[in-house]
Recover the amino acids of this structure.
């Protein structure tokens, strides 16, 4: 045994590849600071907890889009569909499972929501594989619209345009009751977000994640080196819809409500915007974007209620014209320039 | 039965006028302009304002709406849009959604979120019997105007020098440029005309569809369906698609209201899967 391990000499290339792969997954200082700060919000803004949990949920949706768009390069305008499916699945589980021991637990509800969304995501992923950006855009949009219609028409199940009422989730894991101040909701959303973030981080830093980026870069060549492009895309699309579904489930549980608004076009568009604000392909882009987006909405909404959409539009136009890659892209550019200048001196 | 068919055709023709500019933009420059509906909204609201505030007769409002939207389109094309032709589709989508949001907020600010209704002139209201079916005079008016426009567009495209240049540019922009055709200029003109047509469609639409600030988003999906089903290589494809969509939508809402928009969305997705280049288009999509 010892002999075989002793004689095995990894080639220098393998060592290098291993070092690259491991180096990619090392935690940076900024990352740790970000999560510490996020946790500290519990004590920093005790009156804004429900807003903060909303931000965490929006961030999770944006993260789910980042997985398909930022890493695999699939343009989607229909993430709201999976958000809505997750919300309704978890909401219905909480409503009709109330009292029935395991089904009413929010954590089970998360899996129900995420599972349903992943199922639909898996089924529709084959539609998304085909065609160009435009086709994908319209297929995802079409799927979202169909889900929207279904939600609106199945009034007996979803409550139609009135929304799903009477969602009363049991205490989380049977211990923590949802309270009026949103303390439980905040901690719960944050923990779920953090765990899912860790998983997403592991996914994109893995060889699987690298292969996705290769597909984004050039699907044809990636296929030529023997990568199962379609399989990979189906996998990441399903994972992404699972994420969006969990976000929806979280939303339904923490607000104790689900409405057709969750599936509406502007949901999908907003989530996409958040990601683009922050910068796609960094994992943190969606989280940063959701913070900025929701804060902007709060501040501008207070100054000019309902017209904040104008500034949102203006920011978006400016972003596309002048700042490509969002905030994180901008930062990365600045850092690159700084190091290049430093090297020149 | 025939009434519904005629209503559907009128609606479909209107959709075609609204969407035709987008077809050309997409086919010519491969540019995804989700803000196309904003130009239609501009035309519609201009008509509403002119008629209600200034008392301009309805028939005069139509060319005014065309010119207004065309000038608006030209301005935006020259200042903003042209920077985005070589950007990715995602950027184009985001940019045009941004424009839509701004347009919606501006209209909301100026007119409020209520639905706007115009009082059509007397000679356009009422119903007449046409081939044994009762149809609104206004619907007939829309059908006539749109038919004239379609024939006109088709003639321009097939018979004039500009039309053949445009077709060449759509078929292969690079080669067309190489042959000395000023593709940029053709595109600017086409964009303006397309926006103008959208504006005209918006003005015509004031009698059929109700206008509120969410118009560009609500109808964006209809435009996209027209294009995806009709393809971007011809003008007859989107025309047939628009008529089909109009009839299907009106009939669907009349006969099976419970299903609503379900049918047309499903048709769109199925068509996209089976024929990504459009139902009526020739040759594979580029």
């Amino acid at each position: 045994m010892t002999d075989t391990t002793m004689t095995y000499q990894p080639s220098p290339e393998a060592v290098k590849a291993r070092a690259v792969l491991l180096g990619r997954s090392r935690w940076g200082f900024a990352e740790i600071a970000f999560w510490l700060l996020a946790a500290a919000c519990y004590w920093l803004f005790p009156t804004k907890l429900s807003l903060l949990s909303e931000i965490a949920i929006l961030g999770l949706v944006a993260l789910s889009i980042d997985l398909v768009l930022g890493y695999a390069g699939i343009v989607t305008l229909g993430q709201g569909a999976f958000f809505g499916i997750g919300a309704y699945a978890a909401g219905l589980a909480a409503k009709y499972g109330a009292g029935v021991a395991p089904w009413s637990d929010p954590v089970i509800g998360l899996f129900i929501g995420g599972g349903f969304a992943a199922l639909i995501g898996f089924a529709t992923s084959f539609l998304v594989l085909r065609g160009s950006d435009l086709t994908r855009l319209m297929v995802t949009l079409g799927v979202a619209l169909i889900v929207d219609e279904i939600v609106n028409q199945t009034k007996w199940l979803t409550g139609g345009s009135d929304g799903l009422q009477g969602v009363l989730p049991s205490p989380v894991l049977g211990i923590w009751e949802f309270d009026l101040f949103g303390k439980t909701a905040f901690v719960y959303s944050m923990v779920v977000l953090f765990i899912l973030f860790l998983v997403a981080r592991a996914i994109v830093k893995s060889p699987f994640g690298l292969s996705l980026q290769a597909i984004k870069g050039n699907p044809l060549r990636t296929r030529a080196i023997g990568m199962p492009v379609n399989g990979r895309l189906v996998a990441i699309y399903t994972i992404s819809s699972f994420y969006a579904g969990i976000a929806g489930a979280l939303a339904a549980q923490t607000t104790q409500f689900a409405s057709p608004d969750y599936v509406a076009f502007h949901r999908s568009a907003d989530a996409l915007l958040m990601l683009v604000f922050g910068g796609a392909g960094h994992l943190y882009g969606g989280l940063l974007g959701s913070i900025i987006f929701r804060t902007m909405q709060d501040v501008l909404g207070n100054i000019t209620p309902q017209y904040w959409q104008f500034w949102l539009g203006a920011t978006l136009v400016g972003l596309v014209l002048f700042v490509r890659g969002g905030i994180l892209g901008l930062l990365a550019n600045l850092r690159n320039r700084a190091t290049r200048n430093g090297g020149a001196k | 039965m025939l009434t519904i068919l005629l209503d559907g055709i009128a609606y479909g023709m209107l959709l075609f006028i609204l969407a035709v500019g987008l077809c050309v933009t997409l086919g010519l420059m491969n540019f995804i302009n989700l803000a196309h509906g904003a130009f239609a909204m501009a035309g519609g609201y201009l008509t509403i304002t002119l008629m209600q505030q200034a008392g301009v007769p309805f028939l005069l409002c139509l060319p005014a709406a065309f010119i207004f939207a065309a000038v608006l389109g030209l301005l935006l094309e020259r200042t903003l849009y042209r920077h985005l032709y070589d950007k990715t589709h995602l950027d184009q989508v985001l940019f045009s959604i941004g424009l839509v949001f701004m347009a919606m907020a501006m209209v909301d600010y100026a007119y409020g979120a209520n639905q706007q209704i115009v009082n059509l002139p007397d000679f356009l209201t009422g119903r007449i019997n046409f081939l044994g079916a009762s149809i609104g005079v206004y619907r007939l008016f829309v059908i006539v105007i749109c038919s004239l426009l379609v024939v006109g567009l088709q003639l321009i495209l097939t018979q004039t020098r500009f039309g053949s240049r445009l077709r060449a540019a759509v078929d292969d922009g690079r080669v067309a440029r190489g042959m000395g055709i000023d593709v940029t200029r053709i595109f600017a003109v086409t964009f303006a005309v397309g926006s103008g047509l959208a504006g005209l469609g918006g003005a015509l639409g004031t009698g059929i569809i109700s206008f509120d600030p969410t118009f560009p988003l609500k109808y964006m999906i209809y435009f996209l369906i027209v294009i995806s089903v009709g393809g971007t290589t011809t003008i007859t494809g989107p025309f047939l698609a628009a008529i089909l969509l109009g009839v299907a939508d009106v009939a669907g809402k009349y006969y099976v209201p419970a299903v609503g928009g379900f049918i047309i969305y499903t048709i769109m997705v199925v068509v996209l899967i089976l024929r990504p280049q459009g139902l009526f288009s020739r040759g594979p999509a580029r």
About this structure: Chain B has a mean pLDDT of 79.
